[in-house]
């Protein structure tokens, strides 16, 4: 069957991790992979997750199937997290949530669902974006178009161009937006800009699809939902794909959610029926363990408070490492201005390093950065920050 078939290209970021693992250099640093690491360079299991697992071990009575859209209590807790307590969307019962296998699963289910009812639509993605966005929406059958986003010259947002393009998007098309912590740039619209984007969606009639993979890792749980709140206020239909890989550290449990918001509870019920029909033919019903952990933590105030602390610590460490990198480069006499790294949000940063510098850092210093210069700030630790700053300063002097 496969003799005459060319092999699919390897995933570039995972390929980088493979190369890193095989590198014998004792000073090697992995700034490529997209997982949080603590100050010892490990990706920890949160203490609140361990506590929830201990509780589950005692109370779980059955491994029978979950409902198609997952545990209803999980769905309620996710809506509280995504929209905030007292949101009009919750009080008016306007959202349907399905527990999905990771944020990726949520994006794909959302895409499949939209494709069934908007077969002619295109999907608009930011330039640049997380590579899998193109893959997921292409696989679901959408033509892909791009809207301007990152400005390499100013290291900021091309906001006027972005807005002008979104004003031209045909009604019914899908616009995929990073709700916070844009991957790969780390550049997010501010509150006023989100309100303007949401107003364009309401005015033009395109369908906003928010990828919410990093809630709590930008500024904090509440501050990071600015985009969601802006779209919620317009009363339009929109989609939110949540991931709990990063903010609960549940990467391999494949835990996420897809939430479909409708203008009325009646429409939501119709949306929910089709959401379930879509899940049924993709994976029938979700894997339980990760969702049960999230539900247990969010249903128990002490555990939730502990989770909030642990999440705030992860977020705080990322902010501190951004600062340490900028200060470390300045202290080594690098006269290029890197202060924009401090303004970026979330785990990722477009470092502004040229491709030749990225290649040199890898070959000569065993520092692994994704092509295009994206670094995972969480890969920096107090043990490697000096080495990384020395190496970048040396590279820039050449
Ligand atoms: N969206 C973005 C922007 C991401 O960066 C990621 C993870 N790298 C995801 C979605 C998917 O996350 P998950 O691992 O939960 O599928």
Automatic annotation (TrEMBL):
Gene3D superfamilies associated with the record: Aspartate Aminotransferase, domain 1, Type I PLP-dependent aspartate aminotransferase-like (Major domain)
InterPro entries noted in UniProt: Aminotransferase_I/II_large (IPR004839), Asp_trans (IPR000796), PyrdxlP-dep_Trfase (IPR015424), PyrdxlP-dep_Trfase_major (IPR015421), PyrdxlP-dep_Trfase_small (IPR015422)
Cofactor: pyridoxal 5'-phosphate
Segments forming domain Aminotransferase class I/classII large: 27-392
Keywords tagged on the record: Aminotransferase, Pyridoxal phosphate, Transferase
CDD domains: AAT_like
Listed Pfam families: Aminotran_1_2
A GO MF term: transaminase activity
Family named by the database record: Belongs to the class-I pyridoxal-phosphate-dependent aminotransferase family.
Subunit relationships: Homodimer.
Protein's recorded name: Aromatic amino acid aminotransferase
Source organism per UniProt: Desulfofustis limnaeus
Record lineage: Bacteria, Pseudomonadati, Thermodesulfobacteriota, Desulfobulbia, Desulfobulbales
